Every structure is written in C-alpha cells, then in structure tokens.
Protein: Molybdopterin-binding oxidoreductase
Organism: Streptomyces mutabilis
Amino acid sequence: MSRTALRICPLCEATCGLSLTVDGTAVTAARGDRDDVFSRGFICPKGAAFGALDADPDRLRTPLVRRDGELREATWGEAFDAVAAGVRPVVERYGPHSVGVVLGNPNVHTVAGALYPHLLLGALGTHSLFTASTLDQMPKHVSSGLLFGDANAIPVPDLDRTDHLLLIGANPMESNGSLCTAPDFPGRLKALKARGGTLTVIDPRRTRTAKLADRHVAIRPGADALLLAAMAHVLFTEDLVDLGALAPHVEGVDEVGQALRDFTPEAVAAACDVDAGVPRALARELAAAPTAAVYGRIGSCTVPHGTLASWLVDVLNILTGNLDRPGGALFPQAATDRTPRPAGPGRGFALGRWHSRVSRHPEAKGELPLSALAEEIDTATDEGEPVRALLTIAANPVLSAPDGDRLDKALASLDFMVSVDPYLNETSRHAHVVLPPPPPAQSPHHDFALNTLAVRNQVRYSRPAVPLEPGRMAETEILARLTLAVAGRHGTDPAAVDAMAVRQTLGKAVGDPHSPVHGRDPGELAAQLTGENGPEQRLDLMLRLGPYGDGFGARPDGLTLQRLLAHPHGIDLGPLRPRLPRPLKTRSGRVELLPGPIAADLPRLGQALAERPAGLLLVGRRHLRSNNSWMHNVPALTGGSNRCTLHLHPDDAERLGVRDGQPVRVKGAGGEVTAPAEVTDTVRPGVVSLPHGWGHGRPGTRLTHAATVPGVNVNQLLDGRTLDPLSGNAVLNGVPVELAPLTDAQP
Ligand SMILES: Nc1nc2c(c(=O)[nH]1)N[C@H]1C(S)=C(S)[C@@H](COP(=O)(O)OP(=O)(O)OC[C@H]3O[C@@H](n4cnc5c(=O)[nH]c(N)nc54)[C@H](O)[C@@H]3O)O[C@H]1N2
Ligand SMILES: Nc1nc2c(c(=O)[nH]1)N[C@H]1C(S)=C(S)[C@@H](COP(=O)(O)OP(=O)(O)OC[C@H]3O[C@@H](n4cnc5c(=O)[nH]c(N)nc54)[C@H](O)[C@@H]3O)O[C@H]1N2
Ligand code: SF4
Ligand SMILES: [Mo]
C-alpha cells in the first residue's frame, strides 16, 4: 500500500515542494508538488533522486565510536558518553577556543541546523568557528553589514517582476539559484525574456545561463569589481545617478563618486579583458531599464575583491534607484523573522572583534576563515592554544576547503573529533565519534534560512514523511544532546535545551515595547505553544512572534504552527514589498554607501587596474546533478556530462598540445592534480575549469559508488593563503595554474 507525503526538498536553495510516494518506509518516487504555493510542481533531477539518496545503503545507521584506533558501531548512549569524555577535558585544560566548530552547507537545509548551532556555540563559548560561508557568501554578509548594519539583510532580485537582470558569476541553470531562493529559476528567467525583459550575464564561461542571455560578457576571472566600479563611474559621469525614493535613506553618494573616480571604463578594460564600451553600455542599459536588478553570486564572491564586488552590486542597485522597489532588489520578510522594529539608528556592524591565532585574520560575523582551519590546528604560536578538538556538523572541508591534504593531516592529529554526518567521508573518517542524522524522509523541514532570501514571501512546513526508524535519533535531538555534552551537562533531558531557548526568546519579547507580547507572562505564553516536540514548539513560537504571527492573540487571524499545518502546500505571503528604512541597523539609521573598511580596501582594487595575468586562470563550475561534495554516491546523479574533467578552450589546447580526453596535470600553489581534458569553447581563452567536491576514495571512507568514479579534488590546487581580506573568504576562482599534458603512458 503506497501513500503520498509532501516534503520540501532540502537539496539546494530552491526549496521545491515534493510529493513523495512512500511504500512502507521507503520513498519510491518523488514528483514536483503542483499545488505547492511557491514551486508549483517544479522539480530537478536531484529532487527526483530523493528516494535513492534517502535509501543510500552507505548512509550510517548507528553512531560510530573509535576504539583501539577503529571506528565501531555503538549505541547512542555510548556515543554521547564518548563525546562528553572527549570534549570536556580539552575545554577544561586548554580553554574554550581550543575546541573548533565547523558548520557545513546542509545546516541551511535542516531544521536542526537552524535551531541548535547558536546554542551549541553559546554553550562552548569558542571563537574557533569556521563555516562554509567563508568558502561562499561571506563577502555579501560583510557588504550588507557595512551598508545596512545587518549582515543578514541581503537584497534579492525581484525575479518575477524585473525588466532587466544583470547576473554576475552565477549559473542558476545548473545551481538553481543561491542567495535568491526561487524554485524553477530557469522558468523564471524564461518568463523574464517572454515579458520583454533583458538578461545580461557576466561569466568567463558561456554557461547554460549565459546562452539564455541577451548579452554575455566573458570577463577575465577575478575582475568583476573593476567592471562594476567602471559601471558606477559611468553613472556618475553621464549624470545617470537617480536614487528616486531611496534618496532620504542613503548617505555618502557623492563620496562614492569621488572614491571611484579612477575606475574609468578605459582604465579597467585591459584588466577585465573587455572593451571600454562594455561597462559604458552595461551602465546605460541599467539606468535606462524601467526596473532592474543587479545580482552577483559565487563568481563574484570567491575572488580577491569579493567584498568590493558584493558592495558594488548594491551600489549599482542603489545609484539606479532599484534597491527596495518592485522589479529591483528587495529585502524579503520571512515568517520566522523577528517582528520588525520601527526605523532608527542601530548598533552597526563590526569586523575584527577578534583574530585568528596564526595569521591574524579578522573575524567576520563571528567566524574565522575556513581556509585557516588547518593552520589553527597544526601550527603552534605564543598567542594561545591551537585547536585540539573539533566538531564538524554537515561539513566536508577536506574536499570543500583549500589544501585538503594539509587539513586531512591536521584532522588526524586532533586530540578529539566529532562529526555529525550521515556518511563516513573524507572528513568524518577522522572523527572519534560519528553521529549520523536520519535520512531526509525521516526529518521535518522548514526553510528558516532560505525564506529570508526568497523571491516571494511564503511559508511552508513538512513533518517527517516517514517515522524515525528504530535506533535512529532525530538530528534536532542529536544537536541538543551534543550541546549538553559539550557544556558538561551530559545526561540532562535534551528537552531542556528547547525549553531554555523558548524561555530566552519569550523573556526578551515580553520586555520589548515593540513586541505584541510586551508585558505578558512568559510562562503563560509558553504554555500556549503547540507542536509535537521541542523543535515544533520553537517553530510555533517564532511564527507567532514573527511579522505575520498571531502575536499570541494580538492578531487573531495571524500565523501559528496549527494554521500552517492546515496548509500542507504552504501559505503564500505575497510578493516582496519595499521595507526601507526598517531593515537598517547602521549607526546613522541610513544606508552608509561608503563605509570605512570599503574605502580603505579601494586602493587595493586600484592596484588591480595594472594586473594582466599572463598564464591560465582556474574557475569552478557546477552540474545540475551534483551538489558540492556529497551527491556522488548516487548512481543516478553521476555519469553522463557530470564528470570531473578539465574544461579548456581549443586555442589553449592547441597551444599546449592537449587532445580532448587526454590526461592533464594541473599545478597550483597548493599542489597538483591530474584530470582528463575536455576541450570546449564554452570557457574563454586563458581560462580552465574544474568542478569541486570530487576526489573521493581515500582509505577509511564508505562511499562505495563515489569511490568508483572518484575524480580529483580541485581545492588541492589552492594553498589557502589567498583570501578576500575584508571577509576572510577563500579565493576559489581566478586562481593561477599551469598545465602539462601527460602521455597516456604516464601515471
Ligand atoms: N573550488 C571550489 N570549492 C568550493 C566551492 C566552489 O565553488 N569551488 N563552493 C563552496 C561552497 S559555495 C560551499 S557551500 C562549500 C560546501 O562545502 P561543505 O559545507 O563542506 O558542504 P558539502 O560538500 O555539501 O558537504 C556536506 C556534508 O554534510 C553531510 N550531510 C548531508 N546531509 C546532511 C544532513 O542532513 N545532516 C548532516 N548533519 N549532514 C549532512 C554530507 O555527508 C557532507 O559530509 O563548498 C565550497 N567549496
Ligand atoms: N546542481 C548544483 N546546485 C547547487 C550546488 C551544486 O554544487 N550543484 N551548490 C549550491 C551552493 S552551496 C551554492 S553556493 C550555489 C552557487 O550558485 P551559483 O553562484 O549559481 O554557482 P555556480 O554554478 O558555481 O556559478 C558560478 C559561476 O561563476 C563563474 N565565475 C567564476 N569565476 C568568475 C569571475 O571571476 N567572475 C565572474 N563574473 N564569474 C565567474 C563560473 O564560471 C560559474 O559559471 O549553488 C547551489 N546549488
Ligand atoms: S531545484 Fe533544488 S530544491 Fe528543487 S528539486 Fe532540485 S535540488 Fe530540490
Ligand atoms: Mo554554497
């Protein structure tokens, strides 16, 4: 007897609603949910493989604990005993910063990852926090922090209404979008064109997205900040600056014009390797469009000037009056956001409140660069203790961060390591304790993080599609128990963690004059929470205190968990709306268009005007049937065009004597790898491309299928020393490399 269960897809940022066919406890099919208020039936091949991914026989079913050097199956009780016994002595002997925490990408796709890491970090009190954000979007957080006073206030392009989209270093036809949650991004791009809108794509590769574009600019990698600065320059010199309704909320416009005066189209042309007419035309088109949105992603962030490029994206949106207006770039308002406060000055955003121990990298948003994790473990200094114990949660930095070989050795040297991960992979193989979460069908889903980046305000919640298998533990409970174990409260009922979170939130809310529950009794409010367990009660709490919530009776028709459960396909909360000045938390209460740290970094960009890289530059790429490092174990998602090959342009292939399919040795600052060449004119001359997340098959891993098509780890070419200084983000694109073709006989 099969049944249908609805489940939001957790596999990428698009958050599509799926309709799963469940036979017993197995998911036998996944289709797009046509009634989903946001995704309307869209699904991609990864979502369609939900059942195979869920049932992957290599998923761990029980915790593993290292005994006599070997990872062995253990009970949950034994595993948490081992965690407490491993972490506490390190904290007590060397202090809290000697315990590192690594949070990986899937934390933005799980309920557990949204509700517990901050509590875990609070319990530990460590400054040694490293996340996938510094391999990804930290430059955007820093630019938002500086411009708007809130690192999480990230404007998203109004995809469904804009007349003109300028897309920089993003390939949503493969990635399905990022920092812009939009199920069926491809369909939304096609709709933009169908309604007469225009699409411009800036990318060194002619991607599937670039093929859709009205104009494709194949820029030299790493040069976007220069191109965007020249565009802003043109807006000033051609009198095209028009802030419109934004004007009263923005300060520093003239100062930006002054600061960018050297970045003329002629001055940037050679470094970008584009004609000076290009930035001029792009700026004029942007200014002339009735509405327009500038949007930058991975290719604009993971480069040496990532924060400046991210800042310039919003500067262009602001100078053309497109920030915070329909059809431009707006701030979403998610159902679990805090109740918006009245406008006014805030606390602002600070960088560098502490520094990494070895290379003195400044923290950003409470994080240190993931590129610096290996040295924080393997290098002694007089400054304090190295990281001696590590907790990795949903992260595989051995493949996703620079210089995996060094990190691999560093992890092997730790006193103690815990991984919360469903797989024994390149990273978790070093753990002393592995705590496996259940497969997605057995987990609840709500997009706490991604709804704050969605192109339409909406709210959806899925309860687990399948009950927890015997012997499994919900990931929410795993993280609650982990929090207690590292805090020295091992053995306490994990419900205490949720109860504490509820008490804290309510305590603040009742004391806040702007809260709908101001002055009420927290105990009485807590007793009203519904939900089957602590995490559901916390969701209920956030919904009820949020911008659409019932305010515990203050707005009787408002949102509650019960109301959401009555709408299994979700509740549409309408298109994005202008919200300024309320999201601003700068000290001035306005958008600070030329923040000090940005102004101080501009001379470095000035130096880049003279750069003319002579050799080859490496960029990455993504494939629709892959996701970072962990989906290569599902046969349906590998093979075909999803292979770890080195793309290079026919001109470069000819010059270097490389044949299609021939193995090529690629050398970078951090090491070398060998991959088969794929000669293609989709990369521009002077650029080669390798995808990331490959390089499987190290001993001690359990990824049976992935090990048969291992690919190579592109991040071995990086040494981790090249960062965007403001954000600490790794430079993963525009990396200088050398190629040497191998004869088939050479290894
Ligand atoms: N060269 C290069 N490197 C890159 C990038 C690039 O473009 N180029 N991209 C970077 C980006 S944007 C990112 S976000 C990072 C990603 O890098 P990571 O954050 O390391 O993420 P993944 O590689 O996706 O690994 C995710 C881990 O989570 C585990 N996992 C999967 N589902 C769950 C779950 O439900 N719960 C738990 N606890 N664990 C789970 C997987 O088994 C895997 O070990 O990679 C970065 N690395
Ligand atoms: N199928 C699939 N979907 C994914 C993922 C995945 O691995 N696979 N990962 C998810 C994650 S974690 C993220 S963060 C998002 C990322 O989502 P996107 O940002 O859309 O990621 P990419 O597809 O890597 O697109 C980045 C583009 O930048 C280009 N590029 C490289 N260097 C430069 C440069 O210097 N300048 C410019 N202008 N362009 C450059 C590359 O050629 C590439 O086409 O995707 C998410 N979705
Ligand atoms: S686009 Fe992303 S969210 Fe949608 S089905 Fe594919 S993997 Fe899942
Ligand atoms: Mo990412």
